[in-house]
Every structure is written in C-alpha cells, then in structure tokens.
Design a protein that fits this description.
The structure is a homohexamer of 136-residue chains. Chain A is an alpha+beta fold. The first copy, chain A, has one domain: Tetrahydropterin Synthase, Chain A (2-Layer Sandwich). In chain A, strands 3-1-2-4-5 form a five-stranded mixed sheet. In chain A, strand 4 and strand 5 form a beta hairpin. The radius of gyration of chain A is 16 Å and the shape is elongated. At the B-E interface, helix 3 and strand 5 of B face strand 1 of E. Strand 5 of chain C pairs antiparallel with strand 1 of chain D, so a sheet runs across the interface.
C-alpha cells in the first residue's frame, strides 16, 4: 500500500462562534478566536490518497490531476475568502480546523478516481493541526 | 556590530481596498485580496535590533525584554484581529504587508532602549515577505 | 475519527549514559551523546489527541486547554532543564528520545479529559524523531 | 510500540518516461516531468523503524547505526546521480516517487536488524511526498 | 526604503563541469557534482525588489505582477529542465549556484518597472545558498 | 559582489551566568537560562563568505572546502559539548548567542582563503537568532 500526499495552501478569514450560545458563552469558549470582526490564517492542506502503483505510469494517482481536483473543489472556494460568510460547503458550521477538514473531505471524497482518499490534514498555525480519515 | 532578531507570530484578517478608488479599480488592482468579507494570514514578524554586546550580560538586548516589548506594542494589538477594523495604528491605511511593517516599526521605534531598531521583517505567506529599515 | 495535534518546544540538556555499564561501554554505545558535561537540543513535541467533534464547539479538545495541560505537566518540568538531573519523571532513566517520549506520554495520559491521547512525537534534531502510541 | 525516524537528503536527476509508450503518450502522461534531458530534486527521505526500547541503551535502534545503513544502502547509490541511468536498483523502473520509495524499501528491508522497517517516506518537492509501508 | 521579496521554486538537473579542464581536473574540483549523467535540485529562488510604497496601492510592486515577471522570464525557462543543456541564458556557463543567480539577475533586471531589483537569492540545498546584488 | 552561505548544525548545552555577579543578580538577569545544571539547543550556524566568482570553477569558494573549514574549526569543538566547560575558544565568556557568534567569527576569520568572511549567523531557537559581521 502506498500513500501519496499533495500539499496546497490557502489564506482565509474566520470567526469561531456558535449562534446557539450567548455572547458570554462564545467569549468563554472561543476567547480570542471569537473576535467580532474575524481573524485569519494561512491554512496548509495535505490530501493523502492511498492505492497501488499503476505500472503504466508509476503513479498511484497523477499528482497534476490531484492538484487540479484540489484546486477546483477546495482552493477556489476557500482561498482569500471568509470561511463563515463566503463558502457554501461551510454554511452553518463552526469553522474550526476540525470542521473545515471534514468539509474538505466531503468535497473531495467523490472526486478522487484513482486510489482512494485516505486522509485530510489541515494546519491552522505552525502549532496546531488536525487530521480527518473519514467516518468508517 | 551585532544584529539580534526576535520572531513572533500573529493571525489576522485584512482586506486590500483603497476607499478613494472605484470598486472596479479596487478589483483590478487588488484582485483576490479585495474579496469583500476579507481573508487572513498567519503573519510572521521578525524584529531586528542592532548594537554592541553588553559585557555584563553578553546581550545586545535581553530577548525576554524584547519579546515583551513586541507583545505589548504589536502582538496584543493585531493578533486575532481584523487589521482594517480593529487596529488603531493601521486606521485609514491600506493594510498591505508594506504598510503593516511600517506601522509596526513606528510602534516599536521609541520602545527599544538597548541597541537600536534596525529592521522589521514581515512574512505574509511562505512566498511573500517585506522588510522595512526606517526612512533615514 | 479526528486527530488533533498541538506542538510545543523546549530546550534542554542531557547526557546518554547507562550507570550499569563501564565507561568504555558507554563510550562505545553512546559515542558523542555520552560527552561528560552533557549537550542539548531544542526538542519539538507534538501531542496528538483522537476523538469526535463536539458539536457545541467544533472542537475535539479545546487547544487552549491542551496547550495548558502540556505546559503544566511537561514544558514547565523540562524546559531550560538538564533532563538527567532536574526532571522528576525521568529520574533513573536513560534520557534517549524514546524514553523521554514515553515519560511525556505518562505525564499526559491521565490529564486529557476530552478525546483520548493517541500519540506523542518528539523531534530531537531535524534528522531524528520518535513517536510513541502507548503500550496497548 | 515506538517508531523511530531518521531523515536523510539526496540530490538526484530523473526523467519520467515509459519506454513502452509513444513519445506522444509519454508527453501526455508525464508532461514537464518527461523533459528530454531530465530535471532533478532534493529528495528528503525518512526511514521509520518500529520496535521496543532496549533497556540497556534506551534505543529502539541506534540512530548512528541506522544512519550508516541508510548511507551505505541508499544515499551512496542515489546522491548526485541520475536515477534512470546510474542506479542499479532502479534499472528498468519508471523513477516516480512511488517507485523510488519501493526501491529504497527493498534496499533496506534486510539490513535493519534492531526493530523492524515500518515505513519509507520520500518528499520529492515541498508539495509532494509518498509513503510506502511494504506489501503485507 | 522597503524591500519586497517574492519566492519561487523550480526543479532542475545540472552537472558542474568546465570543458576547458581535463576529466581529472573536473573530478578533482567538482567531485560528486561532476557526476557524468547529472544530478538535480529543488532550487528556491527569492527575488528582492527595493523601493518606496505607492500610496495608491500600498505596494512597492504588485506581487502578482512580480510573480508573473519571474514566471515568464525565469521559471518557464528553468523548471523541469537540464540547466547545462536546455537553458539559453546559461549556455556556455558552468551552472554553479553563483552563476545561475547572476543569470537570473540578468533575466530580470530590465523587466522590473516598479521599484528596483535589489537582490537574487538562490538556495540549492537546505545547506547552501547564494545571493547576488548586481555588479555596481 | 556575491554572498555564499553554508549552513551547519550543532547540539550543545550551556548556562548563562556571570561569575562576577551574585546568584540573585544572575537569576534576575538570566532567569530560566541561568538554570544551575544547564540546558541546551540545536544551534543552526550560517557562515557567509563574500567575493567574486572564480571563472575556472564558477565558485566564490568551493563549498566542500568551506564545509570542511567549518567542521574542523567550529563543529568539532562545539557539537555535543557543554559550551561553558568544554570549548577552549569560549573559556571565560558568557555563552550568549551573541558571544558564541563572535567566538565562531574569530575561529573562522583567518581560515577563509577564497573570498572574505562576511557574516556569522547563529539561530539559538526558532524565535531567536543573531548575526555578527566583524568589528570594522
């Protein structure tokens, strides 16, 4: 079994906020991340595909193709955007790194047609990252 | 001559927009960076102080002190903030990396009392950074 | 299943030395790492917690809380210390990266109360790192 | 269970090309990577060994020994070489990152005598890497 | 004075070889870098432009424009190429990092029309880089 | 003018302590860095040599030679050592990053015979580094 990883970067704003909670509760839970006008990050995304090597190409999946799939289905929708306001697949979701990673997984799961989506890693800062491997 | 550098990181949102221009001009100049709801970055700041070594301490400037100066005068004001809306020292200024670096220089120039502020470097993404060395 | 990682850094001295072996044996096994007065590293620690997303917060575990748990139970005890001499949880143990990682795991295992401690990674240099996932 | 990783770097040229395909097919599949005179990379290799801690040393495997095994069996054969032309263990193989990782695994699998080879990771660029964990 | 830096990456093969020297002399001087079939690197290029901030844009130079200038005049000519054989502006030149940096400077010097080209930095490996600031 | 940089890494222990001060003064000035049994770092050293390109080689200075000069005159003396106790050229000096950089400069200044030593940069942690350019 081989795992192939493609990295991409996007810059986005977000605000952590649960509309079902009071302002005080939001402040208590999300602290600085609840700042009213939002803040932002350079998110680093790693998409891992697992599979066998195709003997014709030496590839599990052509990384040029994977790059394009990631660009069309994720980067174009989140790069230089506000994750709470501008992104259809995150509407109504608290845009924590965890929820963004799950959202990205769902964007990609049906688009990978060589190998199989194995993992989505998302670095929010140099000190924080999350990994989602699907819900099976 | 010795140069001592302290690095700090902050996460902020911004939007590039010149209110004296039309929407079309802003769009043409700032493109993705003009996205209406803003986007964001993990900014990496490097503050360089030049000076002589103090023989009592072996330091040009005590980096614990420099860290505190940077935190009080810069990081507290910009971290987890929206640079267009929340930051007094950037009010009315297009928050390009260049202008943020100049703003940070102005916040720090009178606070460094050992050695002399030499340079402010600001990384906006892994591909873009600016350096300001004052206007002399 | 989601994996959430928090990174922290500490600077410490150590000496690799097994008191049950002769000086010659220690020298033969540990070589440079056996240098009598010790040497040191900037250790990079990554703590991985696995769990489900809490729908109220979007978090597996609040990273501010995880940061505090790591600081109180690990960083305060090892940062700017000599690992052979100053650290209670490493007393009598050869402070190899492997053993430090196991020691850190044991410091944290009972303190994580959201999600479950999954892995402790410890980078000793840019070329060497270890990962411990518990003994089950 | 502990995982110990040793990192090494090598600089090599290669060309992606399948001799059983026409020039047009090669061009269509491999694009820039099919450039006639080859191109190159600084490959970053990570070799992961899994095992128990030896109580005498605190090591899963002595990293000085692992470093030497990697140097003798891999680095000496690929560093500053052309992977299509100069490397015996890649003869007749399309030198994609996937196939190089498998080739390196096969070079190492019988040489690791403390712990067990667990994984070979190979970074081709800062955006692409593969991992091979054997074929069991 | 402000300095604005744009980073770009390219992957290329090269061979260090002076045709005016004997094989023995080439071997003695260039050692591994003289390997007959060439080797390669992921080169990291940083282009530094110095200038004043344009008050209309907040930019010294629009980095989207600088990115395009670098892509058209440098990256397209060297990425996935063999520097000895495929690159017009390096014909007849020993492609050491020094000479590549000078060649890139000459490609860019007349194309930068906002601010002034200040420096070209070229990282050949993580341990080696050069900087050229023109010949004045 | 060209600047050529070679990077090297060493792991060492140190303690910041001025024997002419009282324990209380040392504690007040050096804080954590004054910890009695010492602590340590993975120091990253960058040595910058300035000069003209030698047309015979394409080099300012052969980096293999520079690497050897750095290894013989610096790395062998400081790697896996205690900087207060084991290093002749730091005897009687407070081993702050500043003073170590000056010490390294003095070790190298007479050994560089192609080009001219321009700068010694020393990274103590990912957040702190110093640069020394000699005392002219």
């Amino acid at each position: 079994m081989l795992f192939v990883t493609r990295r991409a970067v996007f810059s986005a704003a977000h605000r952590l906020y649960n509309p079902e909670l009071t302002d005080e509760e939001n402040e208590a839970i999300f602290d600085k991340c609840n700042s009213y006008n939002g803040h932002g990050h350079n998110y680093v995304l790693e998409v891992v595909v697992a599979g066998e090597v195709n003997p014709k190409t030496g590839y599990v999946i052509d990384l040029k193709k994977l790059k394009k799939i990631i660009r069309e289905n994720v980067i174009k929708k989140v790069d230089h955007k506000h994750l709470n306001l501008d992104v259809d697949f995150l509407k109504g979701i608290i845009p924590s790194a965890e929820n963004i990673a799950i959202g990205i997984w769902n964007q990609l799961i049906d688009k990978i047609d060589e190998g199989k989506l194995f993992s989505v890693k998302l670095y929010e800062t140099e000190n924080n990252y999350v990994e989602y491997r699907g819900d099976k």
